[in-house]
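Help! Submission page says 'invalid entity' but I think these are all valid:
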Amino acid sequence: MVEDFPNTCQKTCIVISLRMTHPFPSLSPEQKRELSDIAQRIVAPGKGILAADESTGTMAKRLQKINVENTEENRRSFRDILFSSDASFSNCVGGIIFFHETLYQKSDSGKLFPQLVKEKGIVVGIKVDKGTAGLMGTDGETTTQGLDGLSERCAQYKKDGCDFAKWRCVLKISDGCPSALAIAENANVLARYASICQQNGLVPIVEPEILPDGDHDLQRCQYATEKVLAAVYKALSDHHVYLEGTLLKPNMVTAGHSCTKKYTPQEVAMATVTALRRTVPASVPGICFLSGGQSEEEASVNLNAINQVPLHRPWKLTFSYGRALQASALAAWKGKAENKAATQQTFITRAKINGLASKGEYKPTGAAGQASTQSLYTASYVY
Amino acid sequence: MKDFVVLFKSSSKGCSDNQSLRMTHQFPTLSEAQKRELHETALRIVSPGKGILAADESVGSMAKRLAQVGVENTEENRRQYRQILFSADDRINSCIGGVIFFHETLYQHSDNGVPFVKMIRDRGILVGVKVDKGVVPLAGTCGETTTQGLDGLSERCAQYKKDGAVFAKWRCVLKISDVNPSKLAITENANVLARYSSICQQHGIVPVIEPEILPDGDHDLKRCQYVTEKVLAAVYKAMSDHHVYLEGTLLKPNMVTPGHSCSTKYSPEEVAMATLTALRRTVPPAVTGIAFLSGGQSEEEASIHLNAINNCPLPKPWVLTFSFGRALQASALRAWRGHKENEKAATEQFIKRAEVNSLACQGKYTGGDNYGEAGQRIYGSCHAY
């Protein structure tokens, strides 16, 4: 009876006793194991995620910066260069997030990209949200759409080689933001997305990005991040999401872009880890930071500092970087085939640096060693 | 807008001088020094090898305990009994980090006129006090309750702090049945626990948060785990909403066990896996320690379970220790039976249990009648939980 029970909710409970066992379990032990294994593979020690899921519109902006036309071929070509890099980059990249179009494109060698990537032992992921939509009655806040038919799309993506998905919600800080509605609505939609993904064998990456726009200080960002993440994990509990089979993709806790006060990587790291310790359950296997508006080096140095914080960190703390992994590579490419090797080299260099940063072992040339930077961490009571 | 800013500044203690309208940490609740004090107190209570003696039985609860050993429930007998516990020798100093007092006991003395509070504090053990005022029914539910005691709690906490207490305890009660716990019971109890916590912290008192799910019923282990996860998720959301400083709190939950009348038997390892899984899914790593209640478990059962929990192969970001009442005192009570000549023997019984639980909270307890041979215990796959 207990074995029958998990498989479906339509099958009315056979148990004669009115006492429910685990009311309407959402996943079988096998499904849980699969999701948990996928998540562990993505955030294996020293590894992080390459976010190569820029939409067509976003790619327009990236390519325009290097004066390259935003054609499907150019987009394919650039992704091809990255994915065909020397297999050693799979030592630092555990997963790659694809945009829908890219999932069905092929390498110059004729191989479909998902296959190319999987052969290197890297897990394939897919962006599944459909962008933000306005929340009436708020100060320009949004929710994210994409739930319609999501279950069927997930099932198809799983067949087409994906094992994880990504969905981005966006919040902002200002006098009146984030509002209670924005927090609750985005947390809820993230939980619905996560629940649907897991039913289809995809590990959901949960991304509640708080934008760095504004002149708020570090404390304000920490406060907002704690409130947002508390709401996210309450929603995940309410929606019966299996946390061991999820990943979190949050912002680091940083001051706003126009904040006049400057903070050290250690301060950013302490505020970030403190916020996460107060909100993210230990059963979440990994936290993969987005880079937001940070430069490549900033993103690596901050990630490194995060992995050196003298507080207990029960989850992996790694990267899920887009621009912070690709900016230099794009600049090296300039749309020219003859720059392929240089592009790949630049990309691999950045990937390796972030791999080290995810273990707290990155030593930028000229930077002090770990022992001397430890003293720069102030006590957590300040946060 | 200017008036608003001025009004805000004067009404908020210690508000930032920041001229910008952008709030820094909105209405910070505690200063750096206050946070440090709370965190360090919490750490001391759950230092390695230590747990909590819950000696806070109300007058009504003591009536039941004393009746079982044929002793009259007088204030003097209650004082005598607590004296038996508090006069334990230095062996308990490395096993007990804190003692929870009932209000009456906080102001009682030993035969020699030494205040109990002083006896405890002098050996480096921290003094706590039960501050709730018992359960009251929630109308419209199937026998569910919330807990009262918020009225004047701030003033009471200030007084308790003066009188030597550095931590407090508040017990909420939930139960499992076809229809319970209801959404109302979960949210109402989570809310009142958060209010209590917030008030305590303002007075430098570490709140021990106790959302007990009773073991009554015939539900199985999975059901208890499911309910425990829902209850704890609600508790920590409420803590966040009420701006409680988690590093300066302790949690006192039930272990995840089957109901008393459940026909399936589970091994200590299964209890441990279910318990640790539920906690890992809900209790933020910032919480300093988790000190389990013993509920209806026997002394040995509670120790064996605590030991299994500490040996469970899942990573544990918080200390996992005990906050036992009956599971530390049952044998002592039975040995005493109200007779002065039994006092030393009774104290020995208590010391013995304290030492056993000190080992158990480090995963080092190898003894026990029904435990069988020591050695590798099978914990099984975590994916079944």
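Support: the input was valid. A stray whitespace character was the problem, and the output above is from the cleaned input. Chain A touches chain B through 46 residues (CB under 8 Å).
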